[in-house]
Amino acid sequence: MRRNARRMRRYGIQPVATVNDLEVAPLVIVSIARLIWRYRSELAPLIVAGSVLLNGMILRHWFPEWWPTVLISTIGMASALAIGGRWVNLPRPIERGYAAFTTAFAGTWLTLAAHFGPFTAPLPAVLGIGSFVLAVPWWAHRRRRARVRVERTLAAWPDIAQAVGLAGSRIQSAMVDLWGYRVRLKLGRGQTVEDAIKQMPALESALHTRRGAIRIQPVPELANRADMRVVEKDPHADAIPWPGPSITSVTQPVKLGVFEDGSPVRVSLKRRHGLFGGIAGAGKSGGVNVLLGDLTACPDAIIWGIDLKRGMELMPWVSCLDRLATTPQAADALLADAVAILDGRADHLTQQGLRVWEPHPDAPALIILIDEYAELIEEAHGAERYTDSIARRGRAPAVTLVAATQRPSQRAMGKGAVRSQMDIRLSFRVREQRDVDLILGQGMLKAGWHAHRLDAPGKFLISAPEHDVPRRARTYLLDDEGVQRTAERHAPNRPLLDAISAAALEAHEALKTSQSATRPSPRHARSSAPQEADMALIAALDTAPDAGASVGDLITATGMSRPTLYRRLGHLEREGRVRQVSRGFWRSRRDSDPK
Length: 595
Fold this sequence. Notes:
Elements: H1 2-11, H2 24-38, H3 44-62, H4 67-84, H5 93-116, H6 123-140, H7 142-164, E1 170-176, E2 180-186, H8 193-198, H9 200-206, E3 214-219, E4 222-231, E5 240-241, E6 254-259, E7 264-267, E8 273-277, H10 284-295, E9 301-307, E10 323-325, H11 328-352, E11 365-371, H12 373-379, H13 383-393, E12 399-405, H14 410-413, E13 422-427, H15 434-440, E14 459-463, E15 472-477, H16 480-490, H17 499-518, H18 522-542, E16 549-550, H19 551-558, H20 562-574, E17 578-582, E18 585-588
Parallel strand pairs: 5-15, 8-12, 8-13, 9-10, 9-11, 11-12
Antiparallel strand pairs: 1-2, 2-4, 3-4, 6-7, 6-15, 13-14, 14-15, 16-18, 17-18
Helix pairs in contact: 3-5, 3-6, 4-5, 5-6, 11-13, 11-17
């Protein structure tokens, strides 16, 4: 009593409810009603069968003469569902057929029930057996079950939002599709899309999905809205065969692949430069092949290629490429000629009072495709200056750069403005999160562009003026046999260089010839530089002591970069001219060395 008195003084008198008389029947009825409502989708076939039986009894008792009207209505409704069912959220033919057949079955049974009576044999048995048979596809239908899960998710969202740190948010609408479902989120006061993106791992756990199944995108019209998509079945799990060229002119948007919702990834290369980035094996080469498959079908585009892997990637397309450079010297010459064409076209546009070069078969655009751009900057000493000029000034004269590289860092891309001029950026899978900003631009990782989460070759994110939200896509698969067939088919229709560009090249060649007659041209100096470096390397190795010369000393003596030096040493070692005395020390092979 004293303890109770202390509690009363401390907390006050608490109300206590007592139950004297409790009826069980209302509780049972309420519980059954709740179960029926919760599982209303699963019980829908039974409810429909009961409704059909009840309507049959009503028709037979009060309106037996209506059976022709019921029959005509049944034929009209079944035909409308079979033909126009896509307008009532039945996109697949099998779904429209199921709805039309079910309507026809129910209407026919009602017609017979109104004419003969609902309990006339064998109508009750037909209704029971038919309802069960038609219920099996309904119970097994994936979209119906997904819709039920979405409805239950909507009901549980306040608790989920509270658990993941998005308290106050709510779901405005939801839609089920073939691969999962999507919802429109209204975020709480002060919440942003970035807050929702940060909670994606927690949302995956709360919604019981697989890892990487949730996508969150901003809604441009309102800052407190977000579209959340749950991908239950990955539409990009399997490779997508290339359907063939999607364009006949370089002025048309190129189709590079397919988004997760099935819509094509279209992007225009007209007066835009492009960048393909991602680690080795992520699918860059496949994306380049798809791009070439479309560009080689255009009679108003000339394609030049640079592949310093001795043509391993671009050589299969050589019959469709006007020029292909596979060495640093050839790459320098190709880029110098591209700058000459750019200048010639710019002069022509100025003289004609025009501002842009409009591509057509008699005046094609020039597209320069560079594989492993970082290798080009390191090996070809004049490439950075030329590519920087093309990136800055090439848009109006229709001279376009498309570069592919593994990691477009400032060192790899050079000190010029090439990377900043790339309007179209495709990011395949990257190893580190910070590489997302290197490829797609500063701040893109924080905004939800998670290229490090891509989990299969060929999957990519695209950033372009027409693609400003992070939507996952997968490029088409164009295998080696497809490349060969496509190149053979498109090679006879490739255009020739226009007269203005050809004249600019001739003037450029004449200028180089006149300069070489008086003094060594810069291009000749660049061509002779590798030979001089090789001679310096051999001399340093010949004069090295028995313990060998260090790699640092050899770099100082030759002026080579470390990767170039190691490649040359490996080549000389395979020829038997040098040997590695110890780790990092080399010298020429001598007669006293063991064979």
